[in-house]
C-alpha cells in the first residue's frame, strides 16, 4: 500500500511540474522526408510519432490555468529543406466553433490557431501565422515590446476542416517567408496560441504571463533544427490599373470626366539570410480607404491613419523615435510654396497630394542582433493651375521634387534591451530648404524585465536661406511588470526643434513631466475576469522663458465582467493654464480650468447582435462652457458571410470659447455653440475566404455658431470686443464618402480589386440648421466619383525556375 501511495505522489508531482507555467517548454524539431498535403485532414503518415505540444495555458480569463482535456489543443511541427509544416487539432463541440468569413488579415467572430516563431531566438522579434476556423489567414510581425504589426504579409498555405471533434488545421510556411541564420544547428523561439471566441478564451503553449512586460520574450523553444538553408527570396508583383473619374467642374478647358491607366511593380528580394529589399516602382495607392476628414478648430494639424500598405508593412525599425509620419510622403506634404501666386490670381486646380514615383526599403537583423533599416522615397513636384486677371492660365510649382530618406541601426542587447540610431533626411530640388533629424535612443530592462529605463536625444537641422538647429530629449523609467506598475517620464524640446518635415509634430519649446501609477488584477473573482486602474499627473512648462503651461490629473478604471462585457470609467482635470498657441499670433491665452468624466461600455462581440458606446461630459470654467459626447455603435452578423455595422456620434457644445479670427495683429476670440454629428455605416459580404466585398458610408457634419466676440488682452485674458462683429467666422462643414471595394485573391499573393469611391466636401462660413438639411446639401453638392480596377499578380522566382525545369 505504501508503494502505491508513493507512486501516486510521484505521478502527481510529475504532472504538476510538467504543467508549471513558469517553466519554459521545449519541442524537439523533427525533419520529414514526406511532404504533408495541406488539406486540413490530419491523415498523412509523416505526422505519426511526431512530438505533440498540448496542455496549453490560459492567458484569459484565468491566467495560468491549463485547458480542459475535452477542449484541448494538439500541435505538431515538421520541417524539411523547403518549409515548416504545422498540424493542429482543436477539440471542441462541433456546434460551438465560431467561423465567420472575413477578408484576409482580419479575424472577425471566429476561433483561431496560430504559430509564432522567433528564428534568431533573440526574444525580441518574431513572426506570427494565424488561421481562423473559416480558413482566413492573418499574419503579423512582433517587435521587442510586444507590438503587433498586422500590415506585414507573407505568402504561405493553410487549410481547415470542421468535424465532430472540433476543427483541424494544416499550414505550410516556406522559408522564403522567414529570415533566419545559416547555422548548421539552430534553436528557434516558438509559441502557439488558440482563441475560442464564444468564451473569449485565449491559450498559449508556453505561458504568457500578463503581469510580465512583453510577449515574444515569453516564448518556448524549438530545438535541433538541422541543415536548413535560406532560399533565394525573390518575387515580383507587377500590377495594372485603370481609373475613370468624374467631377462636375464645369469649367472651360477642364474635363469633367477623365481616365488614366497605370502600371508598376513591387519587388521583394532577399539580399542574404537576414536582410530583405522591398521596392515599389510607380505605385498606385488610389484604392486605399479615404481619410476621415474633420472640421479642425485647433491651431495644430490633424494626424490621419496611414492606409497605404507599403508604408505600414514591416516599418517597425523606421518608426523608432516617432520621427516618421509616412503620410508626409505624397499624401500630406509639410512644405508648400504659394509665393508665385498673386493676390489677383485665381486657383483653378490645386494639387494636395504628390505622386510617389518610387519607394525602397531595406531592412533586417543579423544573428548578433543588429537591425539595419534603409528607406528612400521620391515624390514628383506638385503643380497648381492658376488663372490671372486677364484669363490667362499658367502652372505654378507649389512643391518641388522631393527625396525622403531614413537610416536606422538598432542593436539588441541583453534582457530585451536595445540601443538605436536613426536619421531622417528630406532633400528638395531647387531653393526650398532641406531637413535632417537624428536621434540616439536606448531601452534598458533588468534581468527579470521588471524595471526599465529608456529615452534618447534628438537633433533637428534645417538648411535653407537660414539654418536652424534644435534639440530634444526624452527620459523614462519605472516598473513595468507585476500587479502594481509606475513610471516617470520627462520630455524636452527647445524652441528650434522641428522634425515635422518627415514626422508628425505639433509644437516645440516645452518641458513636460509625467508620473503614472497602475494597479492591475488579472486573477478573476466571482463577478469579473480582469480589473485595471490608473492615475497620472502631468505638468508642463515652456523652456524659453520657462513659464508654466498646464497641469493635468487623470484617473480611471477598467473592468471585464464574467459575461464578457467590459466597462471603463475615467476622469481628468485640467487646471487653469497658459496656452501660447491658441491665439495664433504668439500671445498667451489664459486657458480656463476644465474637467471631464466618461463612461465606456463594450459588449460581448461574440453575440450576433452587439452594441456599446460611451458618454462623456466636459465643463469649461469660463462661461460654464459644456460639451457632451454620445457615441453608440451597433453590429449585426446575419450569418458567417454577411455583417453590418452602424456608428452614431453626437457632440453638442455650448458656450465654448476659442480663437475665431484676426483683426490686423489683434486676436479675436468668440463664445460659440457647436454641434458635430458623425454617422457611418459599413457592410460586408464575404463569398469565400479569398473573395469578398465591403462598403463604408460616412457623413460628417460640424458647425460653429458664434454668439459673442472678445478681444485677447496682453495679459492673456478676454475683454468684450468693441468693434463691429467680424463676418464670415461661422463654420458649417460637411463631408460625405462612399468606399466600395471588391477583392478577390485569385492566386497566392495575387489580387483583383474593384473600387468605387464617391467623395463630397462643403465648407461654408455661415450656419445651416438641422442635420437633414446638411445631409441633403452634401448629397446635392458636386460629387467626385471614381471607378477603378487593379490587378496585381505575385510571381515567385523559385516557382518560375521549377516550371522552367519541367519544360
Descriptive overview:
- The chain is mainly beta and 807 residues long.
- The chain has a domain at 25-226: Sandwich (Immunoglobulin-like).
- Helices cover 5% and strands 53% of the residues.
- It is built from three helices and 44 strands.
- A hairpin with a 6-residue loop joins strand 28 and strand 29 (528-541).
Query: How many whole angstroms does the radius of gyration measure?
Result: 29 Å
Mind describing the biggest β-sheet?
A: 24 strands, antiparallel, barrel
Helix vs. strand class: mainly beta
Q: Specify the CATH class of the domain at 25-226.
A: Mainly Beta
Key words describing this protein structure:
about 800 residues, Immunoglobulin-like, about 55% strand, globular
Helix and strand arrangement:
Layout: H1 2-18, E1 26-28, E2 57-60, E3 73-79, E4 83-91, E5 112-118, E6 126-132, E7 137-142, E8 148-149, E9 157-163, E10 166-174, E11 185-196, E12 201-204, E13 220-226, E14 234-246, E15 257-270, E16 275-281, E17 346-349, E18 356-365, E19 370-379, E20 382-387, E21 393-399, E22 402-413, E23 417-428, E24 434-445, E25 451-463, E26 467-479, E27 484-493, E28 510-521, E29 528-541, E30 548-561, E31 566-574, E32 577-579, E33 589-591, E34 594-602, E35 609-620, E36 625-637, E37 642-663, E38 666-688, E39 691-712, E40 718-720, E41 731-747, E42 750-764, H2 771-780, E43 784-792, E44 795-796, H3 797-806
Parallel strand pairs: 1-13
Antiparallel strand pairs: 2-12, 3-4, 4-10, 5-6, 5-11, 6-7, 7-8, 9-10, 11-12, 11-13, 14-15, 14-43, 14-44, 15-16, 16-18, 17-20, 18-19, 19-22, 20-21, 22-23, 23-24, 24-25, 25-26, 26-27, 27-28, 28-29, 29-30, 30-31, 31-34, 32-33, 34-35, 35-36, 36-37, 37-38, 38-39, 39-40, 39-41, 41-42, 42-43
